[in-house]
Design goal:
The protein is mostly helical and 136 residues long. It has four helices and two strands; from the N terminus they run ααααββ. α1 (2-19) runs antiparallel to α2, α1 runs antiparallel to α3 (57-103) and α3 (57-103) crosses α4. This is 9345_t:CDS:1.
Length: 136
Amino acid sequence: TKLYAALKHINKLIRQIQANTQTPNNTLIQTYNEDIDYINNKTEIQINHIIPKDLISTNKKALIIQLKVQQKTIHRARKLENNLTHQSTINKYISKRYNDFNNNTTHMINSILKRHTDLVLLHNICKADEVITEPE
C-alpha cells in the first residue's frame, strides 16, 4: 500500500541521516528532499524539506526526532489500515456464511455435520460371465 511504501522511505531516510557523517552537499540534500517528496505524495502528511543547516550536528538530532514522530504517525495509520482490511475480510466471510445458511440450508447443515460423500472407485466389476478391470 501507499503507507507501507512511505514507511519504507522514511525508515531509509532516518537511517541515512543518522549514518551520514560527511559534510552535507547539495546532491545529498537533494536526494533527501526527493525522499521527502515521495513520502508527502504517498501520505497526507507534509514533511518540510531539509536545508543545509538542518544537517549540522547540533540540529541533526532535532531533525531525526521530527522524522521519527512522522514515522510513528505513518506506522499507526498503516496499522489502522491493516486492521480495517482484516475486519472487512472477516465481515465478508461472515456475510457469506450467513447467506449460505439462509439460501442453501441443506448444504450448510451437511457441512456442519461433516456429511461429505466420498468418491467411489470400482477397480473391477464382476458380471455373471466376465470380470471387467479396464474402462471402455
